[in-house]
Amino acid sequence: MRNRWNIKVEVLGILLAILWLLPFYLMFVNSFKSKKEIFLDTTSPPEAWSFDNYITAFQELDFLRTLFNSLLITVISVILIILFSAMAAYALSRAKSKMSTFLFFLFVSAMLIPFQSVMIPLVTVFGQFDMLNRGGLIFMYIGFGASLSIFLYHGALNNVPKSLDEAAKIDGANRWQVFWHIIFPILKPITVTVAILNIIWIWNDYLLPSLVINTTGSETIPLKMFFFFGEYTKQWHLALAGLTLAIIPVIIFYFFAQRSIIKGVSDGAVK
Amino acid sequence: MRTRDLSYWLFLAPVLLALGLVVVVPMVLGLFYSFTAWNGIQTGEFVGFQNYINLFTDERFLDSLWFTTKFSVVSVILINFIGLSLALIVTSKIKTSSLLRTTFFMPNLIGGLILGFIWQFIFLKVFASVGEAVGMESLQAWLSTTETGFWGLVILMSWQMAGYIMVIYIAYLEGLPNELIEAAEIDGASTIQRFRYIIFPLVAPAFTVSMFLTLSNTFKLYDQNLSLTAGGPYNSTEMVAMEIFKTAFVQNAFAYAQAKAIIFFLIVAVIALVQVYINKRREVEM
After folding, report:
1. In 3D, which of B175, B12, B48, B24 has the Cα closest to residue A266?
2. What CATH number does domain A33-270 carry, 3.40.50.720, 1.10.3720.10, 1.10.260.40, 1.10.300.10?
3. Looking at this predicted complex, what is its ipTM?
């Protein structure tokens, strides 16, 4: 009885998983077809696995450079968010005062503000100071990413006993050393969560870069994909090859870090 | 460390600077500009509540608000239903559990813009060719009407977010005391009874978290809206986030768009505060 029930559940699960993967399958098989072949048949595998579409898409997307831009912006932003948020959360959790409570409240309430509500003044102000470039974009990511990251670090730091700080201080370490050599390494699990949440968000972000980056050659993957798609919207064979290319880095990342990713996302949402 | 120490402020300085310039200053400026005739360059004259008053007769804005609300309600229900079902499947004693989790969660890692483009292909081309093959009229010309655009967006978001919500439900389901469920089983409770009387009440906090996460995510949707329907046909599937964007950067009505953005903020903030309130009340009860 028990067994039969489990087998039914398993079959249902597998069928659903196939359904979930179907969009990716359709994207993949059609990305190898010619324009004419897509017109005739969208569901079966291609007659011949030709890489012509990929060669065109690779060149048109300027793929290596676009990939590099995405990596550069994501990596620098995430590292800075981690360092600065951990430092801030440490100060807030160690100095218990009205000021700390107020600042923590300020950071948390900033999470309530949707991007569209600050978007217009943000772009005009940064435009006036000539900061609509990659440096400005990274700075904005720190501002938008700090709240959630501080919130997560603050929660973790409340479980790190203060006696640890004091012991290190007696041994002659200053604040800076205590933090980097003793506290920050202990925070590693939450650092992984903070890193993953910010990587997913920044890597996939479209709207902010579309407003900030306006020089050819410095576009990120979503940004370039938008232009590319606009140009090839009637040519699905090329568009689908481009979309597949854009997804490959994410699949590789997921393949190697799936456990931490699912755990990180779950922790970030539940806390 | 004390508040008056220099080190306290040095530790906080980078984030205070970034948050201040990126969120606080634009928010305060935005609130101020929404009461003026600001055009992006000059502040213009002070117009009081005129921008806000105009909102009430702006059909395009009201339509987008109504469309967003309908979309959010339908999506929240579907995403949570599917997400919980997936969570129950992968937490049963099955061999492929971790493989299934990985699969269901995958769409969440890919940007909404790219997912929208993939689904555009499916709705426009695959639906049409399958419809032709099996002779179903209803699969033709998807995304060309308001209704198919609406359901297209709902399908895309349910497919994408169900795996995310599944992960949240899993976290709560795996925290359930096993003895309790086994005890009920020994006492002869059926699968449905176990779910209704034991699992369901204990997983209730997960509903609050998931409901509000889906609600705020669907209400603020932009990328998927842009890449799947781009608001068409005739702006009838345009959601609030996109409407604000177009008012600002297509029509160049900066002050007016900012007033819409402030209303948008108030709605999102109310949704979030209701969640905080419900959570607090539950904690007290427990």
Report:
1. B175
2. 1.10.3720.10
3. 0.93
